Amino acid sequence: MVKSLATVCISACLLLSLNACTQDTDADKALADTSEQSHTLRIAAAANLSDVLPHIIDSYQADNSSSAQNVSSISDIEVTYASSGKLYAQIKAGAPYDIFLSANQDFPAKLADENSADAINEDNKLTKPFTYTRGQLALYSVTKPLNDFTPASLIDAFTNASFTDDSKISIANPELAPYGASAKAYLQSQKMYDKLSAQKSLIQSENIGQAFQYAHTGSVDYSFVAQSQLVAIKAKPEQFITLLPASYPAILQDGIIVNNTDQAADFTDYLRSKAGQQHFLQAGYLAVQ
Which top-level group of life is the source organism from (predicted)? Predict the structure, then answer.
């Protein structure tokens, strides 16, 4: 009888131990599943997206929260805003971004080319670059009203009697900034770039943000800026002219998935969807097909 009771106790202990192990395994699995579902999506975004991207993210998460089958794609989203060149350097150094949204096409193309040439890390290749929006170029001034001019007669603003040798125009560095390159091309097409440079009327800023600040503070008379910057501050109609898109090289902004996950793919799909493109239109960009 004593031997039988001992056997029962041992069996019970073994059963409890096995059950505990099973529970631990289930708990570990649940924790892993939760970790997978709550993965933070990390986006490296060009600084010019700081006004529009938060609205796109809010809409994306709101749309996903209403769809039960997309619950796994709802996650915390962290965005780092900086110059495209700086973000490119961080990614090359191993920064754990999932998506890179550049202000131009060059940096995503470089990442794709470099990754293609590198046989290492075959299981986590970058995707091909994609165009997610198109910028608009505008002329901005807080000291010289522009309501008497149209895009077709814009160059008259630089040749009429009110434009003197003391008048200044700012453009972003054409070698580094897409908006600066397009502004230079526009002035060249109007046979004005060399003339303005010769009379030292052109002030070159480091980037489009600085070009905007020069005009916004009245440090220069005019600046070629991004239309999205003017939308963000609700500039008055007499303070700017939006240039005709056909009058300068297209300012295309490309992105690339750095860490090819379902969540990254889902978000970039939304970025290019009709809903995502509507946000870009409202923010002063042009939609892309």
Answer: Bacteria
Q: What is the mean pLDDT of the chain?
A: 82
Give the phi and the psi of residue 254 in degrees, each rounded to 5.
-110, 155
List Cα–Cα distances, 185 to 93, 132, 270, in angstroms.
Answer: 34, 23, 33
SS3 assignment, position 52: coil
Residue 250 amino acid letter: A
* Tokens of residue 122, six digits: 């075959």
Quick check: 185 and 130 in contact, CB under 8 A?
no
Q: What is the enclosing helix (H) or strand (E) of 29?
A: helix 2-37
Indicate whether 6 pLDDT > 70. Answer: no
What are the pLDDT digits (tens) for 62-101? Answer: 988 766 555 455 569 999 998 888 899 999 999 999 999 9
What 3-state DSSP class applies to 170? strand
**CA-based max dimension of the chain:** 117
Sequence-ordered strand ranges (E) for the chain: 41-46, 77-82, 99-101, 130-135, 137-140, 169-172, 202-205, 222-226, 240-242, 251-257
Lowest mean pLDDT among 62-71, 75-84, 116-125, 214-223: 116-125
Q: Residue 160: pLDDT band by 50, 70, 90 thresholds?
A: low
DSSP 173: -
Which amino acid is it at 17? S
First to last CA, the chain: 84
Residues 98 and 259: their CA atoms lie apart, in Å, by 4
Place of tokens 């005709």: 244
Whole-prediction pTM:
0.75
101/92 Cα distance (integer angstroms): 15
